[in-house]
Amino acid sequence: MAKSQATYSKKENEKKRLKKKKDKEEKREERKGDNLKGSKLEDMMAYVDENGNISSTPPDPKKKKIINTEDIQIGIAKQEDLIDEDPIKKGTVTFFNDSKGYGFIRNSDTQDSIFVHVNGLKEQVGEGDKVVYEIEMGQKGPTAVRVSKAPIVKAEPKPKPQPQPKVEPEEKEKPLPEA
């Protein structure tokens, strides 16, 4: 007598396939039971209350607000470009690659790093140089332009204060005590 050609793994795979088919059929029947085809319109309605929350009860007509359609803004309002009082900024060159022609400047006030290209230089700069520059928007963000080395300002020594001659107050004559 010959053994069956079906192996254990084939039997297990068949069991899994039948179980999956049965589960799929149960889910289909469950969806049919949950179908809302015969439901009333009122049961399917949802309302938004005055606070923006979704509820099943209609809002109170006494709390109704009248909104002018011209007052509704779609999108955001344009912001006016802010104009700096002093367009000339000061900073230090943190990196500059002469062969590629670009680098970065660290702003002295904000510590932001600004991109600089060799085309925006008035004179040659190197790493560690103190520079003055202006900012313009480039293709990928703010770019330093009209970059030149900062003029070296020597601090003048403060003059020492001259000693003021001491003026002693005049002594008033005191009346002599009578004896």
Specify the structural class: alpha+beta
Q: What is the terminal-to-terminal distance?
A: 160 Å
Give the beta-strand count: 7
What is the string of helix and strand elements?
A: HHEEEEEEE
Helix content: 10-25%
Main β-sheet description: 5 strands, mixed, barrel
Based on Cα principal axes, name the global outline. elongated
Q: How are the strands of the largest sheet arranged?
A: 3-4-5-7-6
| Average pLDDT reading | 81
Cα-based radius of gyration, to the nearest Å: 43 Å
What is the beta-strand fraction? Answer: 15-25%
**Which ranges are low-confidence, i.e. pLDDT below 50, for 5 or more consecutive residues?**
none
Enumerate how many helices there are, as a single number.
Answer: 2
Description:
- The strands form two sheets. A five-stranded mixed β-barrel has the order 3-4-5-7-6.
- It has helices at residues 8-33, 41-44; strands at 47-48, 54-55, 89-97, 102-107, 113-117, 130-137, 142-149.
- The model has no long low-confidence stretch (mean pLDDT 81).
- The protein is α+β, with helices and mostly antiparallel strands and 179 residues long.
